[in-house]
Design a protein that fits this description.
The complex is a heterodimer of chains A (about 210) and B (about 400).
Chain A lengths: L4 H9 L7 H10 L11 H10 L22 E5 L7 H10 L5 E5 H6 L21 E3 L6 H16 L24 E2 L4 E2 L21
Parallel strand pairs in A: 1-2, 2-3
Antiparallel strand pairs in A: 4-5
Helix pairs in contact in A: 2-6, 3-6
Chain B lengths: L5 H6 L4 H4 L7 E5 L11 E7 L2 E8 L7 H7 L6 H5 L6 H16 L5 H30 L4 H21 L8 E2 L2 E2 L7 H23 L3 H7 L7 H7 L4 H4 L7 H4 L20 H25 L20 E9 L2 E9 L7 E5 L1 H6 L2 H5 L4 H10 L4 H5 L1
Antiparallel strand pairs in B: 1-2, 2-3, 4-5, 6-7, 7-8
Helix pairs in contact in B: 5-6, 6-7, 6-13, 6-16, 7-8, 8-13
Classes of the chains: A alpha/beta (about 210), B alpha+beta (about 400).
């Protein structure tokens, strides 16, 4: 139970700072999200443009792009994931330490985008790893990426440290290692990780149609 | 002491064959596909003797997006937005090359005003591409951030122009067969003139920061030398070729569009090393500025589309055509075969990035592994175009 807002302001005037562990923990986490320096295709250029002077991602505490997945908190999937690249993307995600978050930037990362018909293009990275924020666009503007950051910050801020909604790194039973797909004869094996990307439940006729 | 300078001694490397002996163990490193350099998903399998590169095998295909097959299944016009995503720095020159190929195939004329608009947009594209490529090269050299920020500051100004004209910052999808999609917005030319007027100042600034820089000279001069005969044999084009001293610029050779009307010079290098490639890009930006000044001054009024060209139900007669332009990275060509239907029978891209990359091993042999990233960066590639 958080402290009442009115009381908090009153105490603040007296020079007393009151907070909860949950609040200050999430405040620290959300303001220092370090992304992985990881560009895939066209969207990577807009990602770089976002970190440059005009859009200045540093305002959100996220300008420190780390080349090593061990030091990164956030993976921005910026571009088309081909079937040759998908195993490496999952492997990089596995190498990141919890808590880790994923932004799927652009139409290709969400669904394959304009290249969806291609025989070599993965139809969305959320088939293999959990995605926190999706940004549509081809490519999304830097403002859209900044909006995705703010959405992610709001998500981190709202995470309780206990209960079923707690972040994965505080949940010993949570899935930590995601299976890396391999190149099969015709497609990636398996074509999707069913624990992350379940088949949609079939809708019975007449149900949910009203 | 004056003659045998340290720079000359640094160039000397013992021949590779002498270093390896029977039973020597080489260290094999896979550089990529995720690597700190900023050129996308590309792998180099490098065999090292200590720090020295003995073998280098490039591994492509991490961004193979089936561009050609998708374009063969789509109508002629529907392939236009896909060309934006080939070399995603230079969508407007890609558009132009493809439009040129289709115009050759179908025999469509382009109105004069549209030709001028094409030249203006293409030269602006060249400037922003060269500026960013220099910024990325410096990033790879360890100057993280600052030169790239200067480059992107100018790039954003040019992208603002593109956005106002085409509606998109990067994926412009602007050219059409027989002209351009939309007329210039009111006051666009004046804005373009202001930005072009500011560009020499930017180039002076970046040159004052970089060209005389001791670290840049030490790390680029004599590094990754490409000989002109090898460059010609390998089909290398663009700034890479001109840095070796070969005078070959399609704007002068083909006079495609209206390039014979403009006065500009083709900068040529002398040594074919990384420094020459850097310098060529700086000088080409200056020449692009002079072309832009002339084009913005001379642009006539008139239509921007050939009235005879058809957008819907476009079916060129059976035949084949190859259209090529001097894209910022080299010769970008589109080869089309028509069988009279609404989509091309064969659609082939000649990507400058891929062909300029074929000599990577020759440039890297005997160099230190730290310089491989630099040599790779100086080729100026975009993986969207390499793998397509």
């Amino acid at each position: 139970m958080a402290v009442e807002d009115k009381l908090k302001i009153e105490l603040g005037k007296q020079g007393v700072f009151v907070t909860t562990v949950n609040e200050i923990y999430n405040w620290g986490r959300k303001n220092s999200v370090w992304p992985l320096q990881f560009g895939l295709a066209c969207c990577a250029i807009e990602m770089i443009a976002t970190t440059m002077a005009r859009y200045d991602l540093a305002r959100f505490g996220a300008e420190v792009f780390r080349p090593s997945p061990r030091q990164a908190d956030l993976m921005i999937i910026s571009g088309t994931i081909t079937k040759k690249m998908a195993p490496q993307v999952v492997r990089l995600y596995n190498q990141m330490a919890e808590p880790r978050y994923v932004i799927a930037m652009g139409a290709c990362a969400i669904s394959g985008g304009p290249f969806k018909q291609g025989y070599n293009v993965l139809k969305g990275i959320d088939r293999y790893i959990p995605v926190d924020v999706h940004i549509p666009g081809c490519p999304p503007r830097p403002e859209a990426l900044i909006h995705a950051f703010m959405t992610l910050q709001a998500k981190i801020d709202a995470q309780p440290l206990t209960g079923t909604e707690r972040p994965r790194h505080l949940d010993a039973a949570a899935m930590s290692e995601f299976p890396v797909p391999t190149q099969g004869a015709h497609d990636l094996e398996p074509p999707a990780n069913r624990l992350v990307w379940p088949l949609p439940a079939p809708v019975a006729s007449g149900e949910n149609c009203g | 002491m004056s003659h045998s300078s340290t720079a000359e001694m640094k160039v000397y490397r013992p021949p590779v064959v002498d270093i390896i002996e029977e039973g020597d163990e080489l260290l094999e490193v896979a550089m990529g596909p995720h690597h700190p350099s900023t050129h996308g998903v590309f792998r180099m399998d490098v065999a090292l003797d200590g720090e020295r590169v003995i073998r280098l095998k490039p591994v492509f295909g991490y961004l193979h997006r089936n561009h050609e097959k998708i374009a063969e299944k789509a109508s002629y016009l529907a392939a236009m937005p896909y060309t934006d995503r080939l070399d995603y720095f230079c969508s407007l020159t890609n558009n132009w090359a493809y439009a040129l190929a289709v115009e050759k195939l179908a025999g469509i004329e382009v109105p004069e005003r549209a030709e001028y608009i094409r030249v203006i947009t293409a030269e602006l594209t060249r400037i922003q591409n060269h500026a960013s490529s220099i910024g990325f090269l410096m990033q790879e050299m360890g100057a993280s951030g600052t030169p790239l920020m200067y480059a992107f500051r100018e790039r954003e100004k040019i992208l603002d122009l593109f956005e106002e004209l085409t509606g998109s910052r990067m994926m412009c999808n602007y050219m059409r067969f027989g002209g351009c999609r939309v007329e210039l917005p009111t006051g666009w030319l004046a804005k373009a003139q202001t930005i072009v007027d500011g560009l020499p100042g930017f180039i002076d600034e970046i040159e004052a920061l970089l060209t005389g820089n001791e670290i840049l000279m030490a790390r680029t001069q004599g590094m990754g030398v490409l000989k002109p005969d090898l460059a010609i044999n390998a089909g290398v084009t663009g700034p890479m070729l001109r840095a070796t001293g070969v005078n070959y610029d399609l704007r002068k050779v083909d006079h495609y569009g209206i390039y014979d009307r403009f006065k500009f010079r083709v900068p040529l290098g002398d040594h074919g090393d990384i420094f020459d490639r850097y310098m060529i890009r700086i000088l080409e930006m200056r020449e692009s500025v002079t072309i832009l000044h002339q084009a913005i001054k001379d642009i006539p009024a008139g239509p921007i589309m050939d009235p005879k060209s058809k957008i819907r139900g476009f079916r060129p007669k059976p035949g084949e055509a190859y259209g090529r332009i001097e894209a910022p990275k080299g010769e970008l060509g589109f080869y089309l075969i028509s069988d009279g239907s609404g989509n091309p029978y064969r659609y082939r891209v000649r990507p400058p990035s891929l062909i300029n990359l074929t000599i990577l091993e020759d440039m890297c042999l005997g160099q230190n592994v730290a310089d491989v990233v630099l040599i790779f960066g100086s080729v100026d590639i975009v993986l969207g175009e390499v793998d397509r």
